[in-house]
Amino acid sequence: MKILFIGGTGNISAAVSRQVVEEGHELFLINRGQRSGSIPGTTSLIADIRDEKSMVQVLGDHRFDCVANFIAFTPEDVDRDVRLFQGKCGQYIFISSASAYQKPPGHPVISESTPLKNSFWEYSNKKILSELRLQQVYREQNSPMTIIRPSLTYETVIPAAIGSWHDFTLIDRIRTGREIIVHGDGTSLWTITHSEDFARGMVGLIGHQQAIGEAFHITSDEILTWNQIYEVMAEAAGVTARMVHIPSDFIARLVPALTGPLLGDKAHSVIFDNSKIKRFVPGFVATIPFKVGIKRTVAWFDADDSRKTIVEATNQTMDRILSAYLPAFQKLALV
Question: Are strands 2-6 and 66-69 parallel, antiparallel or unpaired?
């Protein structure tokens, strides 16, 4: 198949790109040429997806079996992609987010029929509006779309609720014996998925005729508490974490930017029902447990000191939360 990815070299998409190439497909990547490192076996098309005129020139007479956009975010992005690719691809895949599912959840088990409703996080709301727009285009124009909703997925990032993402701040903090924050009491349930496992599910949907008009989430079946997640992270770092449990709503009031990621996502227990992706992609199973995957991720950071960025603003935010909470907690403990 001839496939186009918008993005294709990021935390989630790089693993998908590698698997597409390994399976012998012809893969083109649209990117701005700003991310170091390319995916061997791919053809780069240097352009800014937001510049529609230049995109028309770069795309030329290309026709694709599948176009997947890993960075589309708004209904306007969807409309632009419809203009660019309608009639030029056999399938358009929109990468949404599992954070679009109802929060707080009405039921702990999440399936693709769970309502999309998140009043806490603008990111999730924009993904919801984008999905609704894409579904409208599918109904009215027969645009051949598929929606995929990843949850917390990692390979070259630290998948923490508070303290890190692309940077190494949290692991450095754990290694140097500083306290880290665990939201709530740490017993809520969560699922973290390695990008290579996600890739196996997504690649199985590319070119899948019965996937047109459908939505899927693709996650691991492994369910962990947040206490277990941070304990395994610390084990991968070679030390023991000094965890401090702080209520999520306290954190959100003190740092409003964390309202969406916590109250709109990670503060709630969720269990993903993956029966639909397994039905459409027979044999799909996530095979990389978090204990194995996070060791690989930490080793990836350790292999190159230039990757081990420490964001002092993040340290300052965590220290500010701890400084605000611990005295109040200690007073309550004395009552």
Answer: parallel
